[in-house]
Amino acid sequence: MQVSAQKIVVLGTGGTIAGTAAQAGDNIGYTAAQVGVGELLAAVPGLQALAGGPLVVEQVAQIDSKDMEHGVWRALALRCAECLADPAVRGVVITHGTDTIEETAWFLHSVLDATKPVVLTCAMRPSTALVPDGPQNLLDAVAVAASTGAQGVVVVAAGAIHGAQRVQKVHPYRVDPFSSGDAGPLGWVEEGAVRLVQGWPAVSQGKGLAAMQNQTADAPWPWVELVVSHAGASGRAVDALVRDGVQGLVVACTGNGTLHHALEAALLRAQAVGVRVVRATRCPEGQLLPTPGNALVAAPGLSPVKARISLVLDLLG
Ligand code: ASP
Predict the structure, then answer these.
(1) 162: domain CATH number?
(2) Active-site residue among 16, 95, 128, 281?
(3) Which of 102, 103, 133, 273 has the largest count of CB atoms under 10 Å?
(4) CB-ligand 1 contact for 122 (6 Å cutoff)
(5) Residue 148: its pLDDT value, please?
(6) Is this model's pTM higher than 0.90 or not?
(7) Residue 211 forms part of a structural domain
(8) What are the DSSP E strand ranges found in 152-307?
(9) What is the DSSP letter of 100?
(10) Is residue 148 among the annotated active site residues?
(11) pLDDT of 273-310, one tens digit each?
């Protein structure tokens, strides 16, 4: 099959990119996830030409991504896996809210064998804004999906291409809210051309997909909670979670994986009764360096929310 005949599949999940406000100038008082993904694409001139082949649109969900659920992740992962296995598909674009896009990106990176591009995109302003950012982000995302040699799960916004592992939303308002910290973005999209300054992400082994295929859509996933070490911390929340049957705990540590002594004691008690405990750092840049002899394992290079996803997938088997 010729590359030009291959299609790009665009999966809609909602977010501000699909949001509407009563007033065109209102960039914060809007409702996310109102406009269908087909309508969003139809409003972007030049998208079809940039794709270089058919653009196929599917609405997988229509939610504000602050409410992202495991069931939507499962549906998204299974549909992406089908697309990746289909020789007629060149790549996948996913429209998503900015709030949890980094989590969905890490989840998909972890479960998919993404030898083709899976490009998540979003917007900070609703579709009704005076100057919406969604249309340009869609153009850039399609440019990445159509780019020769592209692979892996990436987030494209405000002209930057971020890898799933490092990307974080670091600003609640500005039109470019993402950072990959000291790792920097993988590259840029400039007038439809991709300029890569690092390689495409390595493709993961794709763990957890089989377990999801064998489950029903509403089957509960392993219960993993986040706790934070901070001044004045105690172990009471951890003890209560253990009493309630939590299966895993990710702790957002201070600095290089250090913990308030009271919280640490509770986490060690939890681990002793079979709860999986993982340390990540609260620091937005850099990554945990190994500290030999620590009884609680670390998740180097992962933010606490991404370490939570990895632990959920581990427990899911
Ligand atoms: N709350 C929105 C969402 O994550 C924010 C956004 O998309 O910018 O769906």
Answers:
(1) 3.40.50.1170
(2) 16
(3) 102
(4) yes
(5) 96
(6) yes
(7) no
(8) 152-157, 160-163, 168-169, 178-179, 187-190, 193-196, 224-228, 248-253, 276-281, 297-298
(9) T
(10) no
(11) 999 999 999 999 999 998 999 999 999 999 999 999 99
